[in-house]
Amino acid sequence: MSKVLIAEDNAANRELLRELLEMHGYTVVEACDGGEALRMIEQTQPDLLLLDIGMPVLDGFAVVGKIRENPRLAQLPVVAVTAYAMQGDREKILNANFDGYLSKPINSQSLAEELDRLLNKGTDQDVSQSQAPGGQPSGKARAAREG
Ligand code: MN
Hints:
- By secondary structure, the chain is α/β, with parallel strands linked by helices.
- The chain has a single domain (3-145), classed as Rossmann fold, CATH 3.40.50.
- The chain is built from 6 helices and 5 strands.
- A 5-stranded parallel sheet has the order 2-1-3-4-5, sandwiched between helices.
- Helix 1 links the parallel strand 1 (3-7) and strand 2.
- Helix 2 runs parallel beside helix 3.
- The radius of gyration is 16 Å and the shape is globular.
- The protein starts with a strand and ends with a helix.
- Manganese (II) ion (MN) binds next to loops.
């Protein structure tokens, strides 16, 4: 099962993210600032990092910069989690070495889809899709491709 590191300085947001991730079957580890995030990546070797932008010690842009500079960490998928809702922020974030972007308040389905996109590339682990009527064609297309 995939392990996700939540780097977020707000305790309530960490708790919400943990609940959503555990509900989707992920193992969760946490960091409260940018410095701890970098230490926890080394110590716990997560499969993906959910990275708040506004944090003490090192902000999200600084953290992702350090990750991409480090050959051992450079391939780690990093998803920005931010309340910044201004025009252009999405572009700024995606141009800054992030693999994805989630805006607060966190939407459970967006979170699940983003992690699935980055962690389950082509491996259709979630076969028991309880699709709503008229649901997404992607699941069916995947199922068809894999017979
Ligand atoms: Mn923050």
